[in-house]
Amino acid sequence: MARPIIYVDADACPVKDEALRVAERHGLAIVYVANTGLRPSRDPMIRYVMVPQGPDAADDWIVEHAETNDIVVTADIPLADRALKRGAVALGPTGKLFTADSIGMALAMRDLNRHLRETGESRGLNAGFTARDRSAFLGALDAAVNRALKVAG
After folding, report:
1. Which of 6, 19, 132, 149 measures 20 to 30 Å from 69, CA to CA?
2. Residue 91's domain is classified under what CATH number?
3. How far is 66 from 91, CA to CA, in rounded Å?
4. What is the pTM for the complete model shown?
5. Quick check: is 1 in a domain?
6. Full pLDDT tens readout for the chain, 153 residues
7. Residue 112 lies in a domain
């Protein structure tokens, strides 16, 4: 099995630098996918993909390219679900590991929260991203990479 690749849903991702540090430490390729400008790199292990504007363009590109045992970093729960269905590992920027067992509840909560915002029952404010979230992400990504490398042999 090929070495895993880390795919980052890069639009508004707060842990791009942390993902890069983990990828570099393990000698893995990392692909940032966004529909806004990204700074290019000369490092062959770092790839920036700019997709056309439009809903889910970055998600679609990631799902088309992610394979079994690759790692997808995203806060987008439907993308996490699609990545899991491709056999990839899905990890949120707060370190939350999405699994086949947890994704259904995550999707349901997302839909409920959207409904509450639409009906005015909730203002939909998200908690701020903290140093603890960043630290949890680093630990979770490192653990996911180690598991993926073990599977890759």
Report:
1. 132
2. 3.40.50
3. 13
4. 0.86
5. no
6. 789 999 999 988 999 999 999 999 999 999 999 988 777 788 889 999 999 988 889 999 999 999 999 999 998 999 999 999 999 999 999 999 999 888 767 656 666 667 666 777 766 666 678 999 999 999 999 999 999 999 998
7. yes
